[in-house]
Structure prediction request, 233 residues.
Amino acid sequence: MASADSGRFVIVSGGTGALGRAVVARFLASGDRVVAPWIMKRELEAIEVEEAAALRDRRLILVEADVADEAGARAVAAAAPGAEVLVSAVGGFGGGKPVHETELELWDRMYRMNVRTAVALTRAVLPGMLERGRGSVTYIAARAALDLPAGLGAYTASKGAILSLAETVHKEVAERRVRVNTLLPTTIDTPANRAGMPNADFSTWTQPSAIAEVIHWLASDAGATVRGGRLPV
Prediction:
């Protein structure tokens, strides 16, 4: 695995969201080149302001692509030739009803946002890592996938699928010098979460920058011995 300041290509799906922008910023700070897909204009505008210098220098490349579709995932992979790091951080949240009252549309949406995106990117990026004999893949699941709170069946099922995906991929590639790990965040301190839970104790929530540090470490030489991990953050 190359060192953290080697200018390697890093793919961060969900890189224009609140967590994703923190991850993008951390890798850029190490001298890496980052490719991030986008589909939401307001998120694009936010990262364009925050990372204007990196965009000018082409250290950050933003690709308009829906990575739940194979063509979109391939376009992102093509923009990051020789990518050594994949951070699968795109996803969504939804719920609030018992399983028997939850519309099938929500189950489909959670699957598409949280699972299909991760699978499509894995298919697009992993073959190159295996060919080169090195790589780091980090999937973002959720602590809720283990705790299974009532009313979030569609969400927790999709995040549970990420745990299964990551474990399977780890077993398939561990002997080929590609390491796979999964993070299990609790509540992340984002503007959307604050708006949705205004009476919560924000001080107990995890900062996006703290999660970004863990992801960056996992992709570094220092974190190279961690493989197949499920890390609570």
